[in-house]
Amino acid sequence: MSENIISYDPSNGNKLGEVTAATVTDIEKAVNNAKAAALHWKCISHEDRLQAIQRAYSAAEPIVANLAELLSKEMGKDIRRSTSEVQGSIWGGPYIAKSCLDAFASKESGESTLEYVPLGIAAIISPWNYPLAMANNLIIPALMAGNSVIWKPSEETPLIAQAFFDTIHQGFPENLLQIVHGAGEQGRMLVESNINIIGFTGSQATGKDIMARAATSLKRLVMELGGNDPLIVMSDANIKAAARFAVASSFENAGQMCISTERIYVDQAVAHEFEQQVISAASQYRVGPWNMEGVNIGPIINKTQHEKIVNHIKDAVEQDARLLLGSTDNPERYIPPTVLAGMTPEMRVEQEETFGPVVCISSFTTIEEAIERANNTSYGLGAVVYGGRDARRVAAQLEAGMIGVNQGVGGGGDVPWVGAKQSGFGFHGSPEGHRQFAQVRVVSR
Ligand code: NAD
C-alpha cells in the first residue's frame, strides 16, 4: 500500500505538495529496470556518457528561476542561494563528468592494464540541506563509471528533487536514472535491495545504519557524513577577518551546512575583541522567509531540528554559557542569530552537530588545549585555523579531512570532498574520489 510523502514550506508549515512513497515492489521494479538500463550504458565510451550528461543537464538551463523558487519554498534558503545551488548543479553535472574522463581512463602497468569498470547499480541517498548539489556530486561519478542510478532524495525536499529529475532524466537512456521517494524506511529498503554501491550523504547515525545493512552483502559504500567543525583563532590572527568568517560560516544556510563552524576556540588574549567583532557581524543578519527582502537566515527545516537547536542553546545557558546575542525563547520555525560564549566540553553544542545559526565561543590559554578540544569529538569533516606564523603548524595537528588556514575549507581545483573519523567513509571529487564508484579490474597479458 503506497503512502504519500507530504512536503511543507518550512517558513509557515503550509503544504506545498506530495509525492508517492515507494513500496518494496516499486523498489524491486526500479532495481530490475536499472539492471536492464546498465546493459547498454556500461558498453558505451566515457565520452559518450559525458555527452549524454551534457545533453541531459542542458535541459535544465531554461528553468533555473523556476527550480530556484521551488528550492527556496521547500528548503527555506533565500533565492540568491537557491539560484546559486541550481546553477551550480546544472554547471557541475557536466563539469564533474568531464573530470571523470581521466580518472576512468585505462592505465598500462608492466604486462597489465588497469581498467575502471562499472559496479552495476548505484543507490544515491541524499539530504535536504543542499538537495540538488549533494545528490549531483554522487550521481555524476556513479553514471560516468558506467553504473545505472536509483536516487532517493530526502523526504523533506521531494518536490525539488522530482522537478530536477523530470527535467534531466529524459536526456538519458530509459531507466538509467530513476527516482524513488520516501524516508528512512524506503532508504533501508533500497540499501537492502539488489544494488551494488551506495553513495550516501547525511547524518552519522544514518551512515552507521546503512553500513550495518550493507555489510550482509558487502556492498560498496561512499558516505559523506555530518560535521562538528572547529575554528581556532590564535592571538596573532586578523581578528576582524576571523570574526567575519566565524559568523558567516556559522550562519550559512541557517547553520544547516555540514561544514558550518560549530565550535570556536579563541586565544584568551584576544577573546574579548573577537567576541565584540562577532556580535557586531552577527547583528547584521536578518531572519525570515526566503522571499523577504534582506533575509539571510531562513527557517529551520522542521520542528525536530528546531527543537534540537533550542535545546542545545538552553543546555549551554543552563551550564553557565553567556548568551551574547539571541534568546533561549525562540520563535516557532526560526532561530535568530545567536552567539554563545564560555562553552565547556560537557555541553551538547560541543559534542553534537547543532546544525543551526549559533556561534559558540570558548577561550583557551594554551594552543595545546585548543587543539585537544578541537579534536575531542567523533567528527572530523572540516577544521579552520586563523593565525599568523604558526597557523599551519596548528592546522597540521587537527583531525579533519579538510582544513582551512585563514580561509574556509575546500579550495579550488579538483580536490576531494572528504571527511576524517566518523564524518566520512569513502569520499567523492578528484580522480581518487571518482574511482570509488568503479570496480578496478586488472587484465594481464
Ligand atoms: P539523514 O541522515 O537524516 O537523511 C539523509 C537521507 O538518508 C535522507 O534521504 C533520508 O531519508 C535517508 N535515510 C534516513 N534513514 C535511513 C536509513 N536508515 N537507511 C537509508 N536511508 C536513510 O540526514 P539529513 O537530516 O537529511 O541531512 C543532514 C545531515 O547530513 C547532517 O548531519 C549533515 O552534516 C549531513 N551532510 C553531510 C554532508 C557532507 O558532505 N559530509 C553534506 C550535507 C549534509
Question: Secondary-structure blueprint of this entry?
Answer:
Elements: E1 4-8, E2 15-20, H1 24-41, H2 46-58, H3 64-75, H4 79-104, E3 107-109, E4 112-118, E5 121-125, H5 133-144, E6 148-152, H6 158-168, E7 177-179, H7 184-192, E8 197-201, H8 204-215, E9 220-224, E10 229-233, H9 239-251, E11 261-267, H10 271-282, H11 303-318, E12 322-325, E13 338-341, H12 348-351, E14 358-364, H13 367-375, E15 382-386, H14 391-395, E16 402-405, E17 424-425, H15 430-435, E18 438-444
Parallel strand pairs: 5-6, 5-8, 6-7, 8-9, 10-11, 10-15, 11-14, 13-14, 15-16
Antiparallel strand pairs: 1-2, 3-4, 4-18, 9-17, 12-13
